[in-house]
Design goal:
Rossmann fold; 10 helices; binds guanosine-5'-triphosphate; 9 strands; alpha/beta; 42% helix; 7-stranded mixed beta sheet; elongated; 289 residues
Length: 289
């Protein structure tokens, strides 16, 4: 049996699922946040089941980390599947008003159903859910217009649970729901690790950095060469095209860091995560060219 690249600590998954379900019980609307660099890998396959008949607003955060043309590709892909993606940059407060409006519109449907049954209207109750570190707290803070929830670069900082009112029409659970890990899909797990959207997991930086180079090389896009040449080659001085990801990390280590492969792997991961390599997606809509 081969060792998986990503290992989660036992116990966390069941606990995360339990508290997520507790949070979902209390709300009418679910704001599902994904990382726009990996919109498929930051989808948990059980979300539709957990959300059930509640309204869901799909938020693709970190829109500053992809190009407008990639954003357009995803918009079309989701629309073809009957979904409306709302792109946000929660760090700089972009796209937030549209998300609030969508949550409110979903609430209006809830109040219509209440009034059909002779009940009085009430504020719509919402929760923000998503994988660790995708920007849930930053989004909540932007929706509130002030800094209430700790937002940090470290994965897994979200802790407390309170209701907060963001307008007369919307109440929000200030502690976001954290999606449990996806054990079944190591490729998705690698992408979560690359983007640092993985929370408490252990992994080998060198394997994850090598996977990043391989994913970038295999991007199914006419822009792929452009991404590669602009990012990897110009930053590290070595053309990745003829090399595997692993060979590339070693070549860069020899070229720049006296053979220190671990340091090189960390640097490449950090450069990608902080946007230093440019606005690069790790996933593109399947079957688009
Ligand atoms: N570039 C960029 N960075 C963002 C964006 N949104 C959030 N961040 C950054 O991503 C990091 C994680 O954001 P958080 O809001 O703490 O993420 P979270 O999902 O609440 O994280 P957990 O509490 O770990 O589950 C922080 O450093 C944010 O500043 C965005 O739209 N663009």
């Amino acid at each position: 049996m081969t060792t998986p690249d990503i290992n989660w600590y036992p116990g966390h998954i069941a606990k995360a699922e339990k508290s997520l379900k507790e949070q979902l019980k209390r709300v009418d609307v679910v704001l599902e946040v994904r990382d726009t660099r990996i919109p498929l890998s930051t989808h948990h396959p059980q979300v539709p089941e957990w959300v059930g008949t509640k309204a869901r607003v799909l938020v693709l955060n970190r829109m500053d980390m992809i190009t407008p043309s990639v954003r357009q590709m995803w918009t079309e892909w989701f629309r073809e599947r009957g979904e409306m993606p709302y792109f946000t940059d929660a760090q700089h407060g972009k796209g937030i008003v549209a998300v609030a409006k969508a949550a409110q519109a979903a609430g209006e449907q809830m109040n219509q159903r209440r009034s059909d049954r002779g009940m009085l209207p009430r504020p719509v109750r919402a929760v923000v859910i998503g994988f660790p570190n995708v920007g849930k707290s930053a989004l909540i803070n932007r929706l509130l217009g002030k800094r209430v929830v700790e937002s940090a670069r470290r994965a897994g900082v979200t802790r407390q649970l309170r209701w907060i009112r963001i307008s007369d029409q919307i109440e929000l659970l200030d502690a976001p729901g954290v999606l449990p890990s996806r054990l079944e899909n190591q490729s998705a797990a690698l992408k979560l690790a690359i983007c640092d959207d993985i929370g408490d997991a252990s992994y080998d930086n060198q394997r994850v950095a090598a996977a990043l180079v391989d994913f970038l090389k295999n991007l199914n896009s006419p822009d792929a060469d452009l991404f590669l040449v602009k990012s990897l080659e110009s930053r590290y001085g070595i053309d990745p095209v003829p090399l595997t990801g692993e060979e590339y990390i070693h070549a860069v280590a020899n070229h720049r860091h006296k053979g220190d492969v671990e340091r090189t792997a960390r640097q490449i991961l950090n450069d990608f995560r902080t946007g230093l390599l440019g606005a690069i997606p790790l996933e593109l809509p399947p079957n688009t060219r």
